[in-house]
Specification:
Blueprint (H helix, E strand, L loop, with lengths): L1 H20 L7 E7 L12 E5 L7 E3 L1 E4 L9 H4 L6 E9 L4 E12 L18 E7 L13 H21 L4 H23 L12 E5 L5 E4 L1 E4 L1 H4 L5 H8 L5 E6 L5 E10 L35 E2 L10 E7 L5 E8 L8 H5 L10 E8 L4 E8 L5
Parallel strand pairs: 4-6, 10-12
Antiparallel strand pairs: 1-2, 1-5, 2-3, 5-6, 6-12, 7-8, 7-11, 8-9, 11-12, 13-15, 14-15, 16-17
């Protein structure tokens, strides 16, 4: 008997591991996280409350949060050191003999708005806020719903359920009642189809550049555009990087649709927590980059032919100053050298008017020299991202 129980446990463990290996992002459930401040003995208290996003369900208590073993080099400190209100975690709740724990497969962290959400005014009851991901639409006219409204979707489902119930009841009635009820059901079904068609991609000639997917829900819709207020509330933010992150499939945006149901107005952005050593920028020693035979009058540059360098490795030679530019991944590229003695290009007077900015909470200052005058360009980068 004992051997049978041990064998059964081994089979269950094997099936569980097989299930974990086969998991995809579609299998995750995304939650907001709150600390449990109840005063009782652990693990009954002192853990976390998980609330499913986009779903009106009660919060679930778990005693602890752990990483899935398949995740390698994950920077767990960016979760443990963050305020729980700043996190959206994707994963599964696992059972243990005496308590539940949450196994994380995907983690995102809020980038602060510096009060930018106030630009949209207070949260109004008629705004349908939701968490979603936004991707570029590479398949125009794909037939994806242009917009799906939760209320209408639920109403249609309720109508269909009522029709099914009516059909079942009609089977117990006489033929005349069946015919009348069936006619009514057909009319209801036709109305439902008409309602659904109102949300289809009505104009095949109109292209929607983005596709949005609602978290924890089985639908997606097309967007004409999105707006964000970070560019207005965070000075010196790299807007190119931000918009590139918004259309990253792992970035979560929180906001609401405008009145025309074409534009998603973003109030909060949660970006994927980077892995340890996830920076793919090449750490290149450039202390002598302008004395290794490179031309000092480079005016054209190409990202594909230049070396990516890290912000922290920049040094300035005594006579020639290296200049840089960076791409949407925040990697620096060498743009050429400027001669300090060449007053036509290098002009410190033009740089004196550039004030060193201060960055708000959650951001830190980065800078590098740029062409044509060798002045510093400043960016306020998200503080928990690596250089």
């Amino acid at each position: 008997m004992i051997n049978k129980i041990i064998l059964l446990k081994l089979i269950l463990i094997f099936l569980n591991l097989k299930l974990i290996v086969g998991l995809t992002e579609k299998d995750f459930i995304f939650y907001t996280v709150k600390l449990d401040d109840r005063d009782c003995e652990f693990p009954k208290c002192g853990g976390y409350w998980l609330q499913r996003v986009n779903v009106g369900m009660s919060a679930v208590y778990v005693s602890s949060i752990s990483l899935d073993p398949s995740i390698v080099n994950f920077n767990m400190s960016l979760i443990t050191l963050a305020f729980t209100d700043d996190l959206i975690l994707g994963g599964l709740i696992r059972s243990y003999p005496k308590f539940n724990y949450f196994q994380v497969y995907n983690a995102t962290r809020l980038i602060y708005t510096n009060g930018g959400e106030k630009l949209y005014g207070p949260q109004l009851y008629n705004r349908k806020y939701q968490y979603l991901t936004i991707n570029e639409n590479n398949t125009p006219n794909s037939g994806i719903f242009n917009l799906i409204d939760n209320d209408n979707k639920n109403n249609n489902n309720n109508n269909n359920n009522n029709n099914n119930n009516n059909n079942n009841n009609n089977n117990n009635n006489n033929n005349n009642n069946n015919n009348n009820n069936n006619n009514n059901n057909n009319n209801n079904n036709n109305n439902n189809n008409n309602n659904n068609n109102n949300y289809n991609y009505n104009n095949n000639n109109q292209y929607y550049p983005f596709i949005a997917k609602s978290l924890n829900l089985n639908y997606q819709f097309q967007l004409m555009n999105f707006t964000e207020m970070y560019s207005k509330s965070i000075n010196n933010l790299d807007i190119g990087w931000l918009h590139n992150m918004i259309t990253n499939s792992k970035t979560i945006s929180f906001g609401f649709m405008d009145q025309n149901n074409k534009n998603f107005q973003i109030t909060k952005i949660y970006i994927n927590i980077p892995l340890i050593d996830s920076n793919d920028c090449i750490n290149y020693n450039i202390s002598n980059i302008c004395s290794d035979g490179r031309s000092s009058d480079i005016n054209q540059y190409d990202n594909s032919s230049e070396d990516k360098v890290n912000n922290s490795s920049i040094g300035e030679p005594s006579e020639l100053i290296p200049t840089f530019h960076r791409d949407y991944s925040r990697c620096l590229y060498f743009s050429g050298c400027i001669n300090k003695n060449d007053t036509t290009n290098f002009n410190l007077n033009k740089c004196k008017d550039i004030q060193i900015p201060s960055c708000p909470k959650g951001y830190r200052l980065n800078s590098f020299t740029v062409r044509p005058n060798g002045c510093k360009r400043y960016y306020c980068d998200v503080s928990f991202l690596t250089d």
